[in-house]
Amino acid sequence: MVATTSTAPTRPGGGRSLLDLVLRARELSILGALVVLVAATAIANPRFLSAQGIEDIFLNASILALLAIGQTLVVITRNIDLSVGSVVGLVAFVTGKYVSEAGHGLLAAVLLGLAIGAVCGLVNGLLVSLCGVPALVVTLGTLYVIQGLDHYLAHGQQINAADVPQPLLDLGSGNVLGVPYLPLIAVLVMLAVGYYLRSYPSGREFYAIGSNPEAARLAGVPIRRRVLTAYVMSGLLAGVAGVLWLARFGTVIADNAHGWELKVVSAVVVGGVAIVGGVGTVYGAALGALLLTTIGSVLVVLKVNAFWQDALIGFLLLLAISVDRLLAVRMTRALRRRNARHAW
């Protein structure tokens, strides 16, 4: 796996390698937790590892992973997007209504979903980057605005799978060479965004902003443009997720993905993306989404009350934030000791 780097100045073999090691350890620990969780559940209920069970986990995790990838771009710039769940619900319903009434196919659904998501992300980005309104306030407000718009358009109606064009439904249930389309899309997006953040100067500027906004500004980083880009990308991926939600489930109501904004943030933080910005990878965020989805499936298989799923996610979120804080303190101390030795 490829880990991102901090923009803090370090000496060769110093802070950068230490940070890389910590990030790899976080991602490997999530992978290890997944293996242990799946193995323990399979022992308790061998049917858990059936082909259909594994496919369902990856299908359900794909939409959450896409949202987590978009959220990662925002969080590493020291911001947050709480509107993604509402955008998914709006896109799923509006797109479903459009294709069912107008008779359009897959391409029209994808383009409409991207357009709606981009507009929502653009509004968030303009308010945060240009107007200077705190991201928490902006996205909490747009969350309720988008929810209200969704309910207004729905008027209690629902979109039925029978009214959705078959090519769109095939996207949610089909596969290529045995690999379902949804996980394949999520992996391709993850690899593309991860490569961009690691390999392009503009991608590394996202981390510079999150690590030290003032230093990034003095270095000439276009902070407003990058923050705006992060929100637009988050909106675009939420639009894609809304179309995939429609393709996956077929039947859509106005409350789809209600409450998912906190699940997305949890997946990102559990995946090792620091809530204070500047640290984390999209690979870790995607693994966090897979872990949370697997936990939900495990609790269903073991017939555990759904309440404990939310409680466990909350515990993991608190644990991840605590670990991030502890690692940040230890890394700072380690860097100071290294720099002091080199100074001598």
Automatic annotation (TrEMBL):
Top-level taxon of the source organism: Bacteria
Localisation per UniProt entry: Cell membrane
Keyword Ribonucleoprotein: no
UniProt topology in membrane: Multi-pass membrane protein
Keyword annotations from UniProtKB, A to Z: Cell inner membrane, Cell membrane, Membrane, Transmembrane, Transmembrane helix, Transport
Coiled-coil residues: none
InterPro entries in the record: ABC_transp_permease
Transmembrane domains' residue ranges: 28-45, 57-76, 106-127, 178-197, 227-247, 259-276, 283-302, 308-328
Annotated PANTHER family: ABC TRANSPORTER PERMEASE PROTEIN YPHD-RELATED-RELATED, AUTOINDUCER 2 IMPORT SYSTEM PERMEASE PROTEIN LSRC
Function: Part of the ABC transporter complex LsrABCD involved in autoinducer 2 (AI-2) import. Probably responsible for the translocation of the substrate across the membrane.
Quaternary structure and interacting proteins, as annotated: The complex is composed of two ATP-binding proteins (LsrA), two transmembrane proteins (LsrC and LsrD) and a solute-binding protein (LsrB).
Protein name: Autoinducer 2 import system permease protein LsrC
Organism name: Nonomuraea purpurea
